[in-house]
Amino acid sequence: MRIFYFLIIFFLFSSGYAQKLTERIDLLVLEHHASYPDVGLVVSASKAEEVVFEDAYGYSNREFQVKAQPQHKFRIGSITKQFTAVAIIKLMEEGKLSLNDPLQKYLPGFPSEIKLEHLLTHTSGLMDYGNKPDWFPKVSKQDLEPEALADYIQKDTLQFTPGSRFAYNNSGYHLLGLIIKKLSKKSYEEYLKNEIFEPLGMNDSFAHSSSEVVADMAEGYEDINGKAYAPEFIHPKQPFAAGNIVSTAADLRKWYSGLFSGKIIKPETLEKALTPYTLIDSTKTKYGLGWQVDNLQGLQMVNHGSYYPGYTAEAWYFPETEVLVTAFSNSMPLTNMVKKIGLIANSKPLEKKEFLQLSHKELLPLNATYQKDNDQWKFQVIENKIYYSRNNSSRYEIKPVKKDLFYSLDWDIFLEFKDAENGVYQTYVFHWNGTETEYSLVSEEKTSLH
Questions:
Q1: Domain Beta-lactamase-related spans what residues (predicted)?
Q2: ∠192-198-203 over CA atoms, to 5°?
Q3: Any idea what DSSP says for residue 197?
Q4: In a domain, 43, yes or no
Q5: How far apart are CA 416 and CA 407, in angstroms?
């Protein structure tokens, strides 16, 4: 009898906890979605394969007011990289390659110093083709086969010695896709379908390199300051192995379940893939093979975010607790929201940040534009607040941690200003994933909006 009562109490407690968890996540999502009420958003949280939360918000198609549904498909952009990495690892397990192989063994003409592991870990020294001055808007719109884009990548000299620095790089993953194609004697799309998607029952996932209309696919938009626009066109062949997969929340659960149960690659190999890469100078990066690797309040976390014109996506997995949080949208910032959901699902407290109150006069020196290659950040002071927009996209507020250090509540990033001359900062520093990228001042505004 005691056991019976214990089971009843346990059931009631568990049910109450689950309901409270669902309500907390829903309120959090509603809070973030309130600034983007029409954006289509699908959020899912699971623990040990059991779904603890899943819901959809806004519209998958705004023109026809089609409401977003959990089963709708979204482009997952750079989350594709973990699939590409696992495909390379699978070929390694089959004895078809070594991660220490030089790239030129498979793609002649590239520098001999570059190894496959450098491509996987964003330490190759290659220039990211997306940062080349003529890529956007000229080359990005062209119907180029993957081999032609590889020739375009090959024209540049190394930016640094391979293995000496981490610099996020789509070019490396593009080349890995060509190696998969060469060694498997299948197209990249066919290989993923045969070796990953079909074995795991991921029936709504595929590598999408055409303009073919897809059933139940969310339409992509650019949300710029509350207004929806068609996203900038990038030819669908170009993202390739760096970012062309379409998927759903349910399929990503199947992906993580199958991957971590040893159905695709060996557990010991996966563990190696989720280990931060060590640079030549013994510095550890925050990236493994296809995943960002970090720690959140004492829990190991492997994750990846993405931006594809018209879409954003996040997938965060906590191996110790088997918690998976995914979010897809068309499109709104997701990073900070997903981070908070991860904390709630792991019964961790939400982080509280303290911010300064700076006056309009104190913020005014930050009213400027900074640029590196074709990547431009514009900072604008409006009354007693400061906002940024990147490459003329949406405007996001940032909060002062220090007089010259700011935090984005939307994207969970830090932005720093330095090298002040005559009251104007000459350099802006973007802090992300343990890296620092410097941008130079190109113009300053003497006035601001009140």
A1: 39-336
A2: 100
A3: I
A4: no
A5: 9
Whether 282 and 330 map to the same domain: the answer is: yes
Q: Answer whether residue 15 shows pLDDT above 60.
A: no
Q: Which domain holds residue 284?
A: 75-345
Long-range contacts, 422-427 (Cβ 8 Å, 24+): 423/365, 424/365, 424/368, 425/365, 425/366, 425/368, 427/370
182 and 303 fall within a common domain: yes
Whether 333 and 408 map to the same domain: the answer is no
**Contact status, residue 87 vs residue 180, Cβ threshold 8 Å:** yes
Which residue, 83, 85, 25, is CA-closest to 53? 25
Residues with Cβ < 8 Å from 280, sequence gap 6 or more? 161, 163, 164
| CA trace torsion 207, 213, 215, 216 (10° rounding) | 80
CATH number for the domain harbouring residue 295: 3.40.710.10
Q: At what angle do helices 335-345 and 2-33 cross, to 10 degrees?
A: 170
pLDDT tens digits for range 66-109: 999 999 999 999 999 999 999 999 999 999 999 999 999 999 99
Could you give the CA distance from residue 324 to residue 225 in angstroms, rounded to a whole number? 31
Count of residues in the chain: 450
Query: Domain count of the chain?
Result: 2
Question: Is the pTM value of this prediction over 0.85?
Answer: yes
Q: Helix (H, G, I), strand (E, B), or coil: what is residue 150? A: helix
Same domain, 383 and 437: yes
Residue 292 in any domain: the answer is yes
End-to-end CA gap in the chain: 71
- Judge whether 61 lies within some domain: no
